Amino acid sequence: MATNRTFTMIKPDAVANGHIGAILNDIIASGFRIVAMKYTKLSPEKAGEFYAVHKERGFYGDLVSFMSSGPIVAAILEKTNAVEDFRALIGATNPADAAEGTIRQKYAKSIDANAVHGSDSDENAEIEGNFYFTAFDKF
Ligand code: ATP
Ligand code: MG
């Protein structure tokens, strides 16, 4: 398995509920190395652009307004098998279905406010990381 990268956001609900530290701790304890990290806030336009892949879905408007409702933490993470292992660490999209011990099971309350984002492929991890960070931000 190659060392590769994924991209995550700690979403506005988890930031507002005081879970930044606990979530970063879980991520680091699971063997991910932080390559880049930023505390920032998405405008509705930027959130719409980030989630453009979902624009035909019924929840798109709610997703965009939620993701621009407060600050987030964006980060690029590195590990062997990063994309798949990070999806396992965060758990199912709906926290009600997320396995015991996963980040969404521990820190999320609903499918729309589900604490964290994780890239779904190496290709999207690259695109999403480059949405926030330039080569000079990656270490
Ligand atoms: P993410 O991309 O945020 O890591 P995911 O890959 O598990 O989540 P996606 O299918 O990509 O899930 O959906 C993106 C986000 O849209 C979800 O994290 C969730 O917040 C929201 N979402 C997905 N499905 C629904 C739904 N049925 N109702 C409301 N919100 C939804
Ligand atoms: Mg997704």
Automatic annotation (TrEMBL):
Q: PROSITE patterns from the entry?
A: NDPK_LIKE
Q: Which residues form the active site?
A: H117 (pros-phosphohistidine intermediate)
The keyword ATP-binding appears for this protein: yes
Signal peptide (from-to): none
Its EC number is 2.7.4.6
Keywords of the record, alphabetical order, are: ATP-binding, Cytoplasm, Kinase, Magnesium, Metal-binding, Nucleotide metabolism, Nucleotide-binding, Phosphoprotein, Transferase
The subcellular localization recorded is: Cytoplasm
Q: Which SMART domains match?
A: NDK
Q: Which GO terms describe its molecular function?
A: nucleoside diphosphate kinase activity
InterPro entries from the entry?
NDK-like_dom (IPR034907), NDK-like_dom_sf (IPR036850), Nucleoside_diP_kinase (IPR001564)
Q: Which residues form the Nucleoside diphosphate kinase-like domain?
A: 3-137
User: What is the name of the protein in this document?
Assistant: Nucleoside diphosphate kinase
If you read the UniProt record, what top EC class would you report for this enzyme, in one word? Answer: transferase
Family, similarity comment? Belongs to the NDK family.
Enumerate the PANTHER family for this protein: NUCLEOSIDE DIPHOSPHATE KINASE, NUCLEOSIDE DIPHOSPHATE KINASE DDB_G0292928-RELATED
Q: How does it assemble?
A: Homotetramer.
Q: Which residues bind ATP?
A: K11, F59, R87, T93, R104, N114
Chief place of localization:
cytoplasm
Q: What does this protein do?
A: Major role in the synthesis of nucleoside triphosphates other than ATP. The ATP gamma phosphate is transferred to the NDP beta phosphate via a ping-pong mechanism, using a phosphorylated active-site intermediate.
Cofactor dependence is on: Mg(2+)
- Which reaction equations make up its catalytic activity? a ribonucleoside 5'-diphosphate + ATP = a ribonucleoside 5'-triphosphate + ADP; a 2'-deoxyribonucleoside 5'-diphosphate + ATP = a 2'-deoxyribonucleoside 5'-triphosphate + ADP
One Pfam entry for this protein is: NDK
